[in-house]
């Protein structure tokens, strides 16, 4: 193990540049997948004819495919039908589709967990279905969605490392390049990568606990 040379300024800078790409891709994917998941999950919950069943089929397909396959597809297969995406955009699209499908199930399950008696009481008091959904179902469902949503976001951040297969210049890609300089760098570089991942993911866990406690 060679900590001194592994932690040379240029190496650390290179690793942090990769970590920045990891955070950027993860953040954009989290926002997009959350929006997509909320829309799809809500539409499936409301059971709109034709649309909900079609979305259900798409969600089941995405959930049962390996994320690695979806990453490969967005990067190498879409150009065959005229859709060319750069490495970063391909990774974001793949993560958004896959995680959006996962989040949609979390949203749908959270909405379904609300007692039907509350919904019936709201409707009998004169609230429309949409107002009942907005004022009664969603606020309560959100409280129950927080823990699984944060867990999914943490998984998304870790899943960005799979995009190394399409040469996304993220943390693991840059770590691999630094390790390629010397076998003695393996332990120090991977230790730094582990610390960076842990710091962000643990921070997300703490934020989720605080947010959940405020909702209760």
From TrEMBL:
Matching InterPro entries, A to Z? Answer: AA_ABC_transptr_permease_3TM (IPR010065), ArtM/GltK/GlnP/TcyL/YhdX-like (IPR043429), MetI-like (IPR000515), MetI-like_sf (IPR035906)
Naming one, the record's GO cellular component terms include: ATP-binding cassette (ABC) transporter complex
Instruction: Give the bilayer topology.
Output: Multi-pass membrane protein
Q: Which GO terms describe its molecular function?
A: transmembrane transporter activity
Q: SUPFAM superfamilies attached here? A: MetI-like (SSF161098)
Q: What domain of life?
A: Bacteria
What biological-process terms (Gene Ontology) are attached?
amino acid transport
Q: Which PROSITE patterns match?
A: ABC_TM1
Compartments, record wording = Cell membrane
Q: Which controlled-vocabulary keywords does the entry list?
A: Amino-acid transport, Cell membrane, Membrane, Transmembrane, Transmembrane helix, Transport
Record's family?
Answer: Belongs to the binding-protein-dependent transport system permease family.
Protein name in UniProt = Glutamine ABC transporter permease
């Amino acid at each position: 193990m060679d900590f001194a040379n592994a932690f040379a300024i240029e190496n650390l800078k290179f690793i942090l540049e990769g970590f920045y790409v990891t955070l950027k891709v993860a953040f954009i994917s989290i926002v997009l997948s959350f929006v997509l998941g909320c829309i799809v999950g809500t539409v499936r919950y409301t059971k709109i004819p034709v649309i909900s069943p079609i979305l259900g089929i798409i969600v089941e397909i995405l959930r049962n495919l390996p994320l690695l396959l979806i990453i490969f597809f967005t990067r190498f297969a879409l150009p065959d039908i005229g859709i060319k995406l750069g490495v970063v955009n391909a990774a974001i699209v793949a993560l958004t589709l896959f995680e959006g499908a996962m989040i949609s199930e979390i949203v749908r399950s959270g909405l379904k967990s609300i007692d039907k008696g509350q919904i019936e009481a709201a409707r009998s008091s004169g609230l429309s279905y949409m107002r009942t959904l907005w004022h009664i179902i969603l606020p309560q469902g959100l409280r129950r969605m927080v823990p699984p949503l944060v867990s999914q976001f943490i998984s998304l951040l870790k899943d960005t490392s799979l995009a190394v297969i399409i040469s996304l210049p993220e943390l693991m890609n840059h770590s691999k390049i630094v390790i390629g300089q010397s076998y003695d760098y393996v332990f120090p570089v991977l230790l730094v990568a582990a610390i960076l991942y842990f710091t962000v993911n643990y921070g997300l866990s703490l934020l989720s606990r605080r947010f959940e406690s405020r909702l209760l």
